[in-house]
Amino acid sequence: MDEYKVIEQKSPVFYEKYERKGELQHQTHYCPGCGHGVVHKLIAEAIADMGLQDRSIFVSPVGCSVFAYYYFDTGNVQAAHGRASAVATALKRANPESLVISYQGDGDLAAIGTAEIIHAANRGEKISVFFVNNAIYGMTGGQMAPTTLVGQESTTSPWGRRPSNEGYPLHVSELLSTLEAPVYVERVSLHDNKNIMKARKAVRKALELQRDGAGFTFVEVLSPCPTIWKMTPQESRKWIEEKMLAVFPLGVYRDRKLAPLNDAVPQVTVNQLLALEGIREEAHVESASTEPHPDLHVNIAGFGGQGVLLLGQILAEMGMRAGREVSWLPSYGPEMRSGSAHCYVCLAKERVGSPLVEHPDVLIAMNEISLHKFAKQVGPHGTVLYNSAKLPAGFPPQQCMIYCIPASEIADKLGTTKATNMVMLGALLELTHTLPKESAFALLKAKVRNQKLLTVDCQAIDEGMECLRKQRDTALTDAHKHEDQLAHSR
Ligand SMILES: Cc1ncc(C[n+]2csc(CCOP(=O)(O)OP(=O)(O)O)c2C)c(N)n1
Ligand code: SF4
User: Fold this and answer.
1) Which end of the chain, N or C, is surrounded by fewer C-beta atoms within 10 Å?
2) Is the CB of 107 under 6 A from ligand 1?
């Protein structure tokens, strides 16, 4: 029975079965002799040896390795073409304790994703990027890549790459090592076993540096693509050795080990900032008093000049002061005045996953166009606050509750139309009871220098609250009357 001993087996970082294929679920989709499988193996083994599988997030690109998420039993995100290092940036910043891997081909990273990689490297993002350079676009059938060699034929350079027309191959490792922030940049190759072992070391080193909190790490891997190169696996390894090494010299281009970037200005968290401004205590009290309404998604829409975006900012800042997670996402046209504008505000207990608000709990429609445009997005339990004394003629019935708040009129009576948005803020506060009006007053006090305007703003909030309260009471009374009538008629 004990005729042989298993000394090599699939890394536990790979799924046991690769679900993509109906049959042959032990195989990847890569062509025989492809370098992607080798690089996958090196990364998987390094993660397993470091014991960081549960903290690893693998970002797969567009290209032949798009399906890496079928293989790596880690966190997985598949990024749009060229955006893997930007997506990795977000993942790492949001989850600093995780090990974030951006895996990209040369078409992905060095063509469509040039901007993303340069800026991620230049910012010193604490991610590890594995750049698989096979001198061609593999997945799409062999178009010229920025790394295609001079004279190399491709479907888009059938005469061979000519510098006069297509320029020269891009040397990404060299390029990135001109930047100040990267801590580790190395180019390795898969053309023979000795070099695969060097690649193994480089992969480990990049991941270990990231684990230890260093900055941007980058490993370029010269990798065979036998299918597109129309060679056998053996020939393609030879081709790397004979052709690619001369153009892409191997070696360490940057090795700064642990060299944290020291900012003259220390970084502070939002909470520290609030504490510095002396409003953290207040935030504590507010959050305790607002427990029953944890999440609120609002769309505030109107035209430029109505204070639409400012209202959203104030709401978001009130939420922030109350210890909520918040987001504010503005959208506006090129016109500073009178173009359409809207913003989404989320106030949440947990981190906000997406700042988009497709189905708002509350729509604040500052004008008729916005009402027509957005009211249908409000669900049956949502509410519309419409800036007018009544709905436009012929406006179809909606599944949600609509309150007509003549905010502009109220603001005019107070002395300035500018306070329209504050009337709406008051109505919103009264409607949702999510945040106390005192928080709005405190915030305005800190922001509005003109005392007269400050007084009007505060009055506007009170009037907005009062207006909503009255309408709600009327609506309730009407509902009770209706119920009574029904009861009598039975
Ligand atoms: C926005 C966009 N543009 C173009 C494509 C088509 N496309 C898919 S993969 C690819 C190139 C992949 O080449 P590379 O990054 O070198 O990876 P390989 O396939 O060689 O591993 C392109 C252009 C796409 N999917 N999305
Ligand atoms: S086309 Fe090239 S890069 Fe793509 S899987 Fe096949 S060998 Fe690998």
Assistant:
1) N
2) yes
Asked if 227 contacts 138 with a C-beta cutoff of 8 angstroms, the reply is yes
Q: Is pLDDT at 286 greater than 70 in this prediction?
A: no
Atom of ligand 2 nearest to the CA of 142: 1
How many CB atoms are closer than 10 A to CB 246? 9
CA distance 371 to 393: 13
More confident residue, 366 or 397: 366
Ligand nearest to the CA of 231: 2
78-93 burial, b at 16+ Cβ within 10 Å, e below that, comes to bbebbbbbbbbbebbe
Rg (CA), the chain: 30
Alpha carbon of residue 468 to chain centroid: 37
Mean per-residue pLDDT, 380-396? 96
Helix (H) or strand (E) holding 386: strand 383-386
**Number of C-alpha atoms within 13 angstroms, CB side, residue 303?**
7
Query: Scanning the structure block, which residue is given the tokens 């997945």?
Result: 139
Closest C-alpha residue for ligand 1 atom 1: 81
How far is the C-alpha of 33 from the C-alpha of 31, rounded, in Å? 6
CA of 191 to the centre of ligand 2 (A): 15
Q: Is 406 helix (H, G, I), strand (E, B) or coil?
A: coil
pLDDT digit string, tens, across residues 165-182: 999 999 999 999 999 999
Distance from Cα 225 to the centre of ligand 1, integer Å: 14
CA of 106 to the centre of ligand 1 (A): 9
